Structure formats: C-alpha cells, structure tokens
Amino acid sequence: MESNVLVIDDQPSILESMNVFFQQRGWMVYTSLKGLKGLAMARKLKPDLVILDIKLPDIDGLVVLEKIKKEIPQTQVIIITAYQDMENTIASIKMGAFEFIHKPIDIHEMDAALYKLSKISGKGVDVKNQQIQGKRFNYDMSYIVGKSMAMKEVFKKIALVTDSRVTVLIQGESGTGKELIAKAIHFQGIYKKQPFIVMDCSTLVDTLAESELFGYEKGAFTGADSTFVGRLEKAGDGTIFFDEIGEMPLQTQSKLLRFLHEKEFVRVGSTKVIRSNARILAATNRELDTMMSQKSFREDLFHRLSVMTIHVPPLRDRKSDIPLLADYLIKKISAQTHMQVKSFDSDMLTHIFSRYDWPGNVRQLENTLTRAVLMAKSSLLTEEDLYAALGKISEKKQKSELFKPLCEVEKDYIIKVLDAFDWHFGKTCRILGITRPTLRSKLKKYNIGSKR
Ligand SMILES: Nc1ncnc2c1ncn2[C@@H]1O[C@H](COP(=O)(O)OP(=O)(O)OP(=O)(O)O)[C@@H](O)[C@H]1O
C-alpha cells in the first residue's frame, strides 16, 4: 500500500511544491491551507506523515502537533517554518515532531528526513523504491493500471509481443483500454521511436478508404490537387493501429487483406509499389464471430489479424482494480485539469463504486471521477460528490429523505385523513382517536389551514 502524507501550510506554493515532491516519490498527498481543517483531515485519514507549518492562520501549529501526537501517535510529523526559532524547534521536537525543516525547503533535506523515517517506521517507507514508483507514475500515455488476475494476463501478453512485429487483435468492450494496450505494445517496445498511427475504421467511407490507407498521387482523381501520403506509409517502420476494425467496409477489408499478404501497396493513381514494414494492431468491441457468420467480416482477415489475441475483460469482472484505477485516474485528472489533487477516502470510494457494473468500463469511471473532481466543493472528495457524479443521491441523503421527524409525519397524516373524509372533523376525530379540541389544537400547531 502506498504511503500517504498530509501537508498543512497556509502558503499554496508550498502545498504545490510538496504535492509534486511527494507524488514523484509515489506518495498519496493530501493538503490543507488551514490548521483546524488539517487536524480534522489528520484524524480522519491517519496519514503516515504530516508536514506541518508552525505558523498557521487559525491555530498554533504546535497545538496541532500536540493533538496529532496524542490522538494519532503512529503518525510522524515534520515541522516546517520560515523562522529560525530555536524555542519552537525544541518545543516541537519535545512534543514528538520527527524532524524540523526550515523554509525554503531544500528537497535534499526532505529526502534525508524521509530516509530517516524509513529506518524508524515499521511501514518501511523505502525512499529509493518510491523514487522508482514516482518515475513510473508519469501519466505516461501507455501506462496501464491493474492488479487483477485478468489484467496480469493482459500484461503478460503485452510483454510477449512488444519487441516483435506480430499482428495483434485486441478485443473487449468499449472503454476497457484497448487503445491504451495498443499504445503500450508500441511504446514499450524497441520500435517506440517509430510512428504510432491510429486509423479509426468507423470513419472510413468505402470510396475514400483506399486513399486514406494507401494515399494518392496528384491528379489521381478530380480534386487530388497534391500527393497525399496514406496512413500505412506514415506508419513507416512503426505501428498502424486499426481501431474499431469491425466497422471497416467489406471492400476495404479485402484491400487490407491483400496488403497483409504482400506487405506492399501502391498509392491510388500510381504504379510504384511501396513496401511496408509497419506492424499491424487492431481492436474491436464487436463480436467478430457473429459478424463472420453474417458475412460482414472476412474470416481470412480475422485469421490474419489474430496471430495473437488479447482479450480485455470488462471492469465489472475485475472490480478489484477499481481502487487502484481510481487513485491513478484522480491523479491524472488533477494533473490534466490543473486542479489540486483531491483527497478521498479510498474505502468509501471502493464501497460506492464497486456496486456499479460500469457498462462504459474504465472510460465511464474516468468520466465519473472527472465530474467528481470538477464538482467537488473542497479538496476532499466526499461521498456526496461521488454520488452526484454518478447521478445518484447518496445513501445518507436517501435516508434523510426517507425518514422525517415525528411531527412532520403527524402533520402529513392528519392532512391525509382530513382529505380522505372531505374535512369532516367528526369522522377525522373518530379515525385518529382524538377529541375535537385536540384536533383543533393540532391544526393550529401545524398551521394546517382550511380545506386545501
Ligand atoms: N487499465 C487502465 N489504466 C489506466 N487507464 C485506463 C485503463 N484502461 C482504460 N484507461 C483509460 O480509459 C479511457 C478509455 O480507454 P481506451 O480509449 O483505451 O478504451 P477502448 O477500449 O479503446 O475504447 P473504445 O472501444 O471505445 O475505443 C482512456 O482515457 C484510458 O487511458
């Protein structure tokens, strides 16, 4: 499990720099600009480490330190301050602060403190290892998250094919990460410096498909004002990824098949044969078996493409990946939207998100989290934010809407009976088992007027 740190400082620039520093070392980072809020977060999150400014706008940093050490003794605290203040240094160390670092923060000093921490902490915070993790965590466009058995199988297959030129067919529902896998195959392999070209087959129109794929010569047809280099040629010694291959028009399928046989093609309007060494990857969310039996997908093309197949399971079949994915995606979204990394309670998120089937798979999860990050009112993603992003109301809210105070129940019931008996007081009193004066006093108490 990754370590987590809470940074409490009233300077946004410090929060930002600490955020980057710890994230690069693979830590989960939480931040607070205020002491009291930071204290509340510490109580809730019980972080491995708190970086605490001694001078805070709302509460003395030393008081925060004292409370943290008393209530969450396992949490280590590093004090930071702009003041060379011996008294505070001594006081904070006496109170159990682990280290005292002066501003501006020297990252080597912070690294040294973390190293020291790794020696004393039972959790074994391994700085070196975290630096490696940090390097890997770079929103790399080919970085795939997953620890489920199913994803481990996917990783194994990727590893088998990255350095070869084998044709791979990637199958899976929409949003499962097929394009990401294609990128991983290309960018993790020895040909990663070569181009990676995507051909979205759902946009191919029969008449233009050949030109798009193989290119055309100037004057090949009306409107061909200049020579056009097709996608295959653009791929060079790299990869061409046919996304949504199931959508490729039948005529184009034949042309692609011929290319796969011969490894050469000619531009439209030319006679010059161009040899290509491009690696072919394809993906589909369609049932190609059914399409083949319906003759809308060529069987021979299928066999050519599926030298190796990778089946990407839907998210509902690997829910154990949700916490890891959510953690990664929130960091990715925060970086992309330049929003401060939102902290969240991983158990709460897992509890809520694991109940959904995610028909749109990881893309839907990513979109949901993006909405949650953008809509969140604070730097902490709450249960309410997650439910709102899912377009649902939270259990807490549901319950509060379902259950009302007794007086409201009584008021509603009296009105219901009055309405049912056309506001006949005698009948209403008999049903409710009360006297007329009692009914009158209740009407007054609940401000129930005349017949509505
Ligand atoms: N295992 C994963 N780890 C990290 N990000 C993922 C993972 N799987 C999918 N994603 C992210 O989810 C989004 C959808 O993934 P991708 O476009 O690769 O899916 P797809 O299967 O190709 O979808 P479609 O069939 O609709 O084209 C992308 O932003 C991708 O980066």
Automatic annotation (TrEMBL):
InterPro entries per UniProt: AAA+_ATPase, AAA_lid_NorR, CheY-like_superfamily, Homeodomain-like_sf, HTH_Fis, P-loop_NTPase, Sig_transdc_resp-reg_receiver, Sigma_54_int
Keywords: ATP-binding, Nucleotide-binding, Phosphoprotein, Transcription, Transcription regulation
Protein's GO biological process: phosphorelay signal transduction system; regulation of DNA-templated transcription
4-aspartylphosphate, modified sites: 53
Gene Ontology molecular function, alphabetical: ATP binding; sequence-specific DNA binding
Alphabetical list of Gene3D superfamilies matching this protein: 1.10.8.60, 3.40.50.2300, Homeodomain-like, P-loop containing nucleotide triphosphate hydrolases
Chain coiled-coil ranges: none
Biological classification of the source: Bacteria, Pseudomonadati, Thermodesulfobacteriota, Desulfobacteria, Desulfobacterales
Domain Sigma-54 factor interaction as annotated: residue spans: 144-374
Annotated ranges, domain Response regulatory: 4-118
The protein's name: Two-component system, NtrC family, response regulator AtoC
